[in-house]
Amino acid sequence: MKRISQILQTGTCIPEQSNYIPSTTSNVLWGRLPCRNDRMIGTVHSGNEITIDTISHEGLLEDQGSDPMAYFATHGVAANDVLNDGIAIARECHHNPDTDGPHVVTGPIAVPEAHPGDLLAITPTTLAPRVPYGVISTRHARGVLAGSEDFDGNYGQFCRADVENETAWFPVQAPYSANTSSEPASTVRFPMRPFLGIMGVTTASNQRPSSIPPADYGGNIDLRNLTVGSTLFLPVQIEGAGLYIGDPHFAQGNGEVSLTALEASLRATLRVQVIPADEAKRLFGRTDLPFAISHGTLVPMGFGSMLDDALSQSVEHAIDMIAAMFEMPRQQVYLLLSAAVDFDVTQAVDITKGVHGLIDLSMFQQLPAYERTMRDIKTYADDASQTNPTH
């Protein structure tokens, strides 16, 4: 993870000749995802990289005062360490908390080579923290324990980030801390694994969808495996794809049970590649749902209004893909999944629930189709053949 030597304000620390998209007010949507009628704010050609600023919604929201400077000051953040684009978005961008999602989304960005039916392969090559802090929260009766006497409500936890050592931390509140007021506060620390909660392609609808539920176009997937080097594959919906990203995270557990992850702003550099429809179908068999390849692991996704529905779709997705990729009988794949594959809850709080499988691709290395399949996949996913997957 890239060290943070200073706050990454708009335009700072950008190498010359970079294809760079800032998260300024004219380049973002707040609470909505792009639709086919939205103008493209930039262009990236297939095979190239693009650097995009993202901004966390924490500190911008109406129930936090709509004033990031004041909100973060209450947590000891200096004025110069608050992102200027966040201040401008909170002040100038339209947002209806009753109908819109909370997320700030940068895009859409044209990929001229992309056509409906193709797959867009998106690989984060750098995910740089823009600030050394973030927020975890629960609110609006949206956590998995909503309605419980002990845990329901609107509250959060400000966290500091030790970017150099790749950990985040916060002090434990009294009376649970054994320390007295004259002693340093007890803290808990946990690993930072930055990723983008939202990566998507523009819907073919004429109306902007809410930023909250994920769908076949991606969006708010909240897949924690999409760290640097991993690749997300999305079915293109419109001419030019209309790539967008947002909902930056420093860390998240599978399930995202309280409602949010450790929400914190990132600068993302992405490699973008188009896989033509015929090639995509040949490689993967099924191309109508998002999936990922992460550190030697195939990650087929499923969505549904209930977790059971999301699990069923993820299992069916996995069977379709493995049967096509490695020329296995579908019933044998089904049995293999039960014996050798974990299916985890991606998130349980985004209206549409998510489940993903974690399939170690090295299991198939003795099959005749393995070498050809892996050679072709590595064209789009560099880490496909890693043999020590981290889930």
In percent, how helical is the residue content? 10-25%
Count of extended strands: 19
Radius of gyration: 21 Å
**Mean pLDDT level:** 94
CATH topology annotation of the largest domain: Jelly Rolls
For the record, the count of structural domains works out to 2
The arrangement of helices and strands along the chain is EEEHHEEEEEEEEEEEEHEEHHEEH
Biggest sheet architecture:
9 strands, mixed
- List unreliable stretches of 5+ residues: none
Share in β-strands? 25-35%
| Morphology call | globular
Structural classification: alpha+beta
What would you call the quaternary organization? single chain
The neighbouring-strand order within the major sheet is 1-3-15-5-12-16-17-19-18
- CATH class membership of the largest domain: Mainly Beta
Distance between the termini: 18 Å
GO molecular function: hydrolase activity, acting on carbon-nitrogen (but not peptide) bonds, in linear amides
Protein name: Acetamidase
Pfam families: FmdA_AmdA
Outline:
This protein is an alpha+beta fold.
Overview of this protein structure:
The protein has helices at 68-73, 84-92, 277-284, 307-326, 330-340, 370-377, and strands at 20-21, 28-30, 48-53, 104-109, 119-129, 133-138, 155-162, 167-171, 187-191, 195-200, 218-220, 231-235, 243-251, 262-263, 266-275, 291-294, 297-304, 342-347, 353-360. The protein is α+β, with helices and mostly antiparallel strands and 391 residues long. It has two domains: 20-174 and 185-223 and 234-275, Acetamidase/Formamidase-like domains (Jelly Rolls); 278-379, Acetamidase/Formamidase-like domains (Endonuclease I-creI). The strands form three sheets. A nine-stranded mixed sheet has the order 1-3-15-5-12-16-17-19-18. The protein is globular, with a radius of gyration of 21 Å. The model has no long low-confidence stretch (mean pLDDT 94).
